[in-house]
Here is the input.
Amino acid sequence: GENVEQHPSTLSVQEGDSAVIKCTYSDSASNYFPWYKQELGKGPQLIIDIRSNVGEKKDQRIAVTLNKTAKHFSLHITETQPEDSAVYFCAAKGDTGRRALTFGSGTRLQVQP
Amino acid sequence: GAGVSQSPRYKVAKRGQDVALRCDPISGHVSLFWYQQALGQGPEFLTYFQNEAQLDKSGLPSDRFFAERPEGSVSTLKIQRTQKEDSAVYLCASSALAGANVLTFGAGSRLTVL
Here is the structure.
């Protein structure tokens, strides 16, 4: 089955700096790659996703890049703000086999004001 | 409803007790997933429903875990004879279409087994 590795496990940046979180996946058939943000005591919330037919997607201060050949994808957050502090999870899914998302182990992002 | 609702938010059980966790998905959503999230870890898949049909239960860790969605809306995850290792947050998510595309998660039910 699918295996998703995520790093770093913790990341501390100064307000205004950029943050990058990286994930690798094992199943070359995976074609959907969402990113979720989880705040304390809440469920994960989808912040951006990308499908395998594009290499990059951007939404305001967040962007995701995908390299299908290398089987890795990354989340980029620019101009970080204290409210970006949370745990971020990457995930992957294909259209065949298991229909559920496989999640990475998470990155705790701390934005220092 | 406006979002995915889970109850109870917190449950403390003595080892050996049975527990039932409820998920009320967004109205009309076809797909419903249950995930288990251990402290400091990512969500781990348990089971998937498409309407009332349980299409995948490969993630259920033992036969003590059972899930149902009899009318294709509300779902219940039942854990029999709870063990300490069952302590985790149980997340429910729903999606408008078949399969896990845009998932909306509930806030979770935190189970602590003493």
